[in-house]
Amino acid sequence: MPAEGGFPADAFARLAELEAGNYWFESRNRLIVWALRRYFPQSATLLEVGCGTGFVLQGLHAALPTLRLSATDAAPEGLAIARTRVPSASLRQEDARDLEARDEYDVAAAFDVLEHIPEDVPVLMRLRDAVRPGGGVLITVPQHPWLWSQADEVGHHVRRYRRRELVERLHAAGLDVLRVTSFVSLLLPVLALSRWRDRKAAGAYDAREFHVPHAVNRALTVALTVERWLIRAGVSWPAGGSLLAVARRPRADAAARQ
What we know:
Layout: H1 11-19, H2 23-39, E1 45-49, H3 55-63, E2 68-73, H4 76-85, E3 90-93, E4 105-111, H5 120-130, E5 131-142, H6 150-154, H7 163-172, E6 176-183, H8 188-200, H9 214-232, E7 242-248, H10 252-257
Parallel strand pairs: 1-2, 1-4, 2-3, 4-5
Antiparallel strand pairs: 5-7, 6-7
Helix pairs in contact: 2-3, 2-9
C-alpha cells in the first residue's frame, strides 16, 4: 500500500528546515501540548500516527519529558529525521491505514494526517482501537474547502474539512467528541488572501505564507498566542485555517469487549 497521501520523499528534509521557529508549526505544537495537559493530564503513553519529521514529538518531549512517546509513519525518510529529534521515542514504519496497535496507549493522535488519506473514518477507528477504553484521541486537520489552493495540491491533500464533517467522522468512528475549535483564526483574513493569490498566480507554489521575515514571524506568533489564550479560556473559534478535535474512546468499550 502506498504511503498515505503520496507525500514526496524529498520533501521531509525541506519541511524539517522550515518547522523550527516558524510561527505556524511552533504555535500548533503549543496548542497540542495544552490540549493534552487539559484533557488527558494523567496520560503516560502517546502514539502519534503519521509523525513526519518528528517536530510534534520533539515539542511533546520537551514539554512532557516523562511521557512515553511512540510514533509511526509510512515514509522512512521522515522517520530518519524524527529519530534524530527524539532518540528516546519508539518509532516504526507503518501506514496509518494498517495500524495494528490495540488497547495499548493512553492517547493516540494524528496531526495534519487525515487530509492526505481518502479512508479517513477507518483510520479514525484504528486510532480509537489503539487506545484503552476511556483513552483520548487528538486530531488536527486543515479547515474550509474554500481555502483550497496550490498549497493543498503540493501537500497531496485529498480534502479540507468543514467542522461538521470532522465531527460526523469522529462519531462514525465510535468516538465521543469533547472539544472542537478552529485555530489560526485571527490570521484567517491574511490566509484567505494568500490562498486567493496562489490561485491567481502562475507558476509553482512558493509557500510564501511560511517563508516570512523575522519581524513578521514574531507578530504572527503573538497573534496566535493571543488566540491560544482565548481557546484556553473556553473560546471555540468557528472558523480558521485549521481544526483541533479532542475525542475519547467510550469507557463502555471495555465491557463490550469482555
